[in-house]
Amino acid sequence: MQSQDVAQHPSSTLSASLEQAEAALVEHYPRLVRIAYLVLPPSLGRGRRVLAAHALAQRALPRGRTSAPVIPAQSSGGVGADAGYAYVRLQVLRTALEAGLPMKGRVWPRRSQLPPLLPQVWGLRLFPRSGGADELALDQRLSALTGPARATYVLRGLEKLPDADIRKVLTAAGVDDPADALREADEVGAQYALLDSPEFDPCSLQARPTDLMRRRQYTKAALAAAAALAVCGALVALPGDGWGPDGAAAPPYAKNSAAEAALDPGRVTRAAPTAWRTATRADFSVWPARGDLTGDSALLRRALAVWARPGETVRVSATPGTQSGGPAGPPQLLYAGNVDNARVVILYDGLRIARYAEPKDGTAGAALDFARADGARGAEASAVVLERADGNVRYLTAPWVTKAAERDLLKPGAGAMALTVTDGITSPLAGPAARTGTCTSWNALQVTDASGTRLLTDLGELVPAHLSAGRPGKSREVRGAEALRVWAPFACSLADARGQGVRSVNAWKYASQPLPDGSGSGAWVCTRAETWRGGGPRVLAQFGTPRLPVGAVVAKAADVPACGPRDPHVLAGVLWKSAGGHWYLLAAGSKNTASIAATGGITATSRGRLLAVKAQQGAQAELKSTLTDGRSINGLG
Asked: What is the pLDDT of residue 261?
């Protein structure tokens, strides 16, 4: 693609040919579609915005081969600093802004205000993947802006344009008052990094069926289907921000007595407030209903209806292996109440935790999250994420939890900081799942019950993961200085398990190895993350030295029995550089390792569970060990 540097002066003028524009459209298509999706009016709904964004980008090419005048793409060069990109971006912005303009006496709407002829999708609803609480909050703030203000925010965040160039772009796109758009955009915080989130990516989509039941009807029911469709159209045209008492739920597919029972707020089950004191099992089934809105039948009806039939504007997320369909019967209410600026409902159907959240001022922007919780007992049923906001997490704790505290795993000697617990709700604590960049701390939730303290950590899901330490099959709670010291250098590796449906993570210090240069001993630790779905466990072998405050991941594997109760053995190695600049191959096996052999770029053997041999930088080797019972173990990964 031909390009031209416009960094010499921000008021340079470029021209684009059809070939330049086409090349820019092909190269930067995902970026252009993202810009269109962000600028289009949110009232279209997420599904229609996706298709409209693609349609606007595909119609952005000039209609002839003559040059078309445009303005600078980016005053600092970089992405799209050429005439072709600047032209197609301007066309995308102009048509996206036109889509949000009022009719103002026009007889016919503009082309961008009509449903796109192409692309078309039949039988599916497409929408971007759901982001976190920060993305949801930003989307709601952008929805409150005018089209030009949203365009300003996007040009600042995605395109990195200075305000002077933004004024030129907006003027060329037909905005009457660019200065007012800039002032309005200033009211939204500069969370520009969130614009790159999958929440705003119309090229990375989720698909859900439209109306499966109606497709199965016989031809003789066509007239009835048409009548139902007309009724649905009339409901869409009604004023308000939802579908009547069901809020943001989609229209019901059919009448069914069992389904209606599951969606009846009057039949929602509630555990007795003291049931947990006499129950045999300490699990979610004995949690009492808490919150200041447990008697709000309208809220519960909306939550149940959206669970069964999430509408197009509802953001739905589910941990891997978790079904997102409606409940089979009346679920159990765990919480219903106001949490900051939202109304939150938490339900449990024996297999899953479902959290419904809607803004206090309506149902637009409702969110529905799912997590598996089948078989959860004790520590695994001790807390549920109630809210994430501004990098902080607030939990709803089990009725048997007497205390809650925040503990930084990277500082085992710092002690835990007590949290306030009111009606089971903790005060906010910094959540590691929202951290980016260098890992300098990892905050975990420490809960206390009759059996002692337990550690849980937020991995970006509804149910926090339970942390333990020790040999597989004999692991224990992370209590006391020794267990905390095992986790300290390796806590940051928990980031590898985010969003994977993790149920528990165990850290096992399986070997300690004297370093060849006499600078102390290195610690070999194996962490195994078990999932709620059973399959997909993630195993990491890690190595730490006195000079490294944060351990290094040296090997990883998934769907293997190593480092677990079924096979409590592991072998891993690392190329290590001493303080004197010498390189060594270090390897260690777990207990009952009789010998270790290295082949390939390094050939060496050792008797016992440790191996240390001089090596060259960048050398590669394959490891294999023999256990005392004669069985062979390959190196992890």
From this structure: 78
Q: SS3 for 591?
A: coil
**Residues 245 and 302 sit within 8 Å (Cβ to Cβ):** yes
Summarize pLDDT for 152-166 with one digit per residue, the tens: 999 999 999 999 999
Tokens coding 582: 């010498």
How many whole angstroms separate alpha carbon 88 and alpha carbon 58?
9
Q: Are 173 and 183 in contact (CB under 8 A)?
A: no
Separation of alpha carbons 306 and 367, rounded Å: 9
- How far is CA 2 from its chain centroid? 38
How many Å apart are CA 159 and CA 192, to the nearest integer?
Answer: 10
Least confident of 165-169, 230-234, 415-419, 582-586: 230-234
Residue 221 has pLDDT above 60, yes or no: no
Query: How many other C-beta atoms can be found within 10 angstroms of the C-beta atom of residue 143?
Result: 13
CA-only gyration radius of the chain, Å: 29
Phi, psi of 430 (to 5 degrees): -65, 130
DSSP states along 334-400: EEEEEETTEEEEEEE-SSEEEEEEEETT-STT-EEEEEE-TT--GGGGSEEEEEEETTEEEEEEPTT
Q: Between the CA of residue 131 and those of 52, 119, 339, what are the distances in Å?
A: 21, 25, 19
Q: Which two tokens stand for residue 338?
A: 């106001």
Peptide bond just before 119 cis, omega within 30 deg: yes
Q: What tokens does 100 get?
A: 């949000």
pLDDT digits (tens, 9 = 90+) for 166-198: 999 999 999 999 999 999 999 998 899 889 888
Q: What are phi and psi of 209, to 5 degrees?
A: -70, 155
Residue type, 98: E
Contacts of 34 (CB under 8 A, 6+ apart): 53, 158, 195, 200, 201, 202, 203
